[in-house]
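Supplementary material to the annual report.
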Amino acid sequence: MADDKSNAAAYWSANVRLIAGCLIVWALVSYGFAILLRPLLSGIPVGGTDLGFWFAQQGSILTFIGIIFFYAWKMNRLDEKFGLGE
Amino acid sequence: MSQFAINVLFVGASFALYIAIAIWAKAGSTKDFYVAGGGVHPVTNGMAIGADWMSAASFISMAGLIAAGGYANSTFLMGWTGGYVLLATLLAPYLRKFGKFTVPEFIGDRFYSKNARLVAVICLIVASVTYVIGQMAGAGVAFSRFLEVDATMGLIIAAIVVFFYSVLGGMKGITYTQVAQYCVLITAYTIPAVFISLELTGNPLPPLGLFSDHSESGMPLLAKLNEVITELGFNQYTADVDNKLNMVLFTLSLMIGTAGLPHVIIRFFTVPKVADARWSAGWALVFIALLYLTAPAVASMARLNLMTTIYPDGPTAEPIQYEDRPNWIKEWEVTGLIQFEDKNDDGRIQLYNDTESFAPTAQERGWEGNELEVNRDILVLANPEIANLPGWVIGLIAAGGLAAALSTAAGLLLAISSAISHDLIKGSINPRITEKGELLAARISMSVAIIVATYLGANPPGFAAQVVALAFGIAAASLFPALMMGIFSKRVNNKGAITGMLTGLAFTLVYIFIYKGWFFIPGTNNLADIPENYVLGISPLSIGAVGAIINFAVAFIVSNATEAPPKEIQELVESVRYPKGAGTAVDH
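Predicted assembly:
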């Protein structure tokens, strides 16, 4: 039982760390590149405008898809590793 | 064949398809009615979530708002997709593991309190009804144009169709119908965009066309658009915004609202395993992104096409004569959604930004005010006509717009009715209600919700996508924090969750009502809905994010000042965190 408990705790903290990592990327591309940091990226031209505009209208969405599939893939491996999958 | 006949044919054929599927997969029991037997594949489920999700706001209204606001309205694009990251990582897998039918059920069990469940029901109803108002407004616009009637009549027809459509089906009927609706709406949205992108940039893929060169001028498309509209006194399309605080809060509000809306969360109960809930969120976003990557291209291209229609010889030359206006303007004039007033009596259509800084130029050109008012909600529907595309494309977009509005309205009405019949009546008032009685209560509450939404949809507190954004703010401020804390904290107790939800909801609603009118009744607002009146420039559309922060803070403070949740609740939180032994969605 003690093993079960520490195993479960390790699984949960690994999950929380992974979520934190995903959310940092999530915030960086949307609130960062697309909004707050846009003036800093204004020097990088993309099709008649700048990189910040691209992140706001395309880049962030593509990144979000990447994050979710990465998280799903990584979590399924964690489920197996800790023996907590179905 | 006349355009009217083509529209009726397309809309009619698509509806026949949905009804046929609904009959084929008719809901037999209450469980089927709510969660479709729990056996849906992640890709199928992702597609159904996509249809559920992409409403009149995404399909009909959003591109029009982006076209008008340019970069500033990218918030809709990021907000309505970024929420899926929160859903996939913070909510969906755990709620699937919990395995109940409804969102209030989780809140009631986790916070071991009937009152918490009741408060969740109230939050859910307020958010969902606001959302349905936006849908009705959008569906009304679509019906009025394609059936060639005025906007109010269009709204009433929409209400009747939604009524028959949602009251007859349940979740099981809906899952497969929604797969069909997704296919209809995505085809309808992308086909005109492909034609237009090809025509303007030579690139058949609209998301690439957006950043390509404009074939006619050789300039980048966006640079061309900037040039044309600034000549007419408008802001640059790609201009940065001054109030970044409001832009951040608005995006945040849409994102957490996405993760707090019951009709989307409910979908994650219909997959067999926890792992599938994670994949479902990913697939849903893939299907959603197909539209969301096309929308900004549609927005900028339609804006450019509109300007070249009015100013065929360039913005510095004379605009077209009103007599020579294209047919689509005439047809939209019938609905009252395009209005022309010849202010300087020269017989031409002056479309420009009537501001102080542009006044000298306007005076020089003999213009006495902007003469063409175009409702933003019509842009996507008018798009194929503006680009002179063939009649069948117009019929297709009619069918797609209606599919979008109806699928979401149906999903929301289902969430409302299950909250009332399952959580309110069966959960609190009369636990011994029969299955038949529960279904009847569900249908009655759907009908009431439709009537309220139609009444308020006649004078909506904004364009369809803006009304929907308000609903997201409400969900963000009330439901999302309670759900997230219920999973990630063992310390938050019943008192904390209840006070948190109530303060978040009350704060957000009061702020919205002050500017938008009490209970959205026109004319009852205390302050005019203009940026000068906003606190720190935070618009009512963005306030949900602040409400959510208040909700979290209050819940933590109150919980820490009162006793910890009982041991069995802490064990429940533990069990929700691990996928092992999820089983299927169960009744009590």
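The CA atoms of residues 29 and 69 of chain A lie 16 Å apart.
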